[in-house]
Each structure stands twice: as C-alpha cells, then as structure tokens.
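[Meeting: bench + compute handoff]

Bench side (C.D.) handed over the final construct sequence. Compute side (W.E.) agreed to return the predicted structure before the next meeting so the bench team could plan truncations. Sequence as handed over:
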Amino acid sequence: MPKRARSSTSTTSFQSSGGELVRSEADGAASILRPTVLGWLSIALGATAIATPSATARLIGAPLSKTTRIILRGVGAREVGVGVGLLSGKKSSAGMTWLRVIGDAMDLSLLVGAMAARRSRRQRLLGAVGTIAAIGLVDLAAAIMQTREERASLA
C-alpha cells in the first residue's frame, strides 16, 4: 500500500516502490511535469514507434521508406530508454528529463528534414512539428523544475 506524504507546497504525493505519483492540490498542471508521468508518456510513444513505424510515418506525414522506418524505430528506442530511466526511481530525474528535451530537438530536426522529401505530406508534418514543439516546452519546463528541486534538496 502506498504511503501518503504531505509537503509544504500543498501537494499530496503517494510514494510507491515504482516511484512517486503526484497529485497537486494547488495546481493540476504541475503533476504532468513529474518524472512518472513523463516516463510513461515516453514509453508509450516509443513503443508505438517501434511496433508500428509505417503507421507512425503515415500519421506524421513522413514518406514511407526503409530509412524512415529505421529512424522511427531508433527514435522509439530512445524514448523507451528515457522512459525507463525516468521510472527507475533514481534520485536524479532532472538529467533524464533533459534527455527528453534533447530528444525533442532531435525530433524537430528530423521532421523539418522530412519536409524536403518529395513524398512527404507537409500539412501533417507541420502538425507533428507543432505537437513536438509543445511537448518540448512541457519537457523544458519539467527539466527546469526538476533541476531546481534537486538543487534545493542539496542545499
């Protein structure tokens, strides 16, 4: 049974052996920035890219090719690896979240590069760019927040 803990920031958290599940009483948006949420998101996105690279390519508007499928599987493997790292319960989750930010930048560069392909569907690619940019901003906010929390705990 998870243990309930109360902190001074009016956040109720539940501790379990698999990490921290957070429910914010003051601001629900803060809970999406937690390593557990980001970890499961990474694993879900990564597993999808690994298992269904052709469907993923069609969804985002990338041209269907062997190279695209290989790249998507590589991106998926990176996402799963980062997700596992975030869920591992290690003390430093900020470093893993910064890896998500770096991965978002890599993904954006791949999407922009895919726009140059003749068989790409640019409208879908633009939608994917917008989605990844938004996710990147969430990841950046989470990385900054987690870095500050880790630094504060060391002081």
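W.E. noted at the follow-up: The two ends are 31 Å apart (CA to CA). C.D. will use this when planning the next construct.
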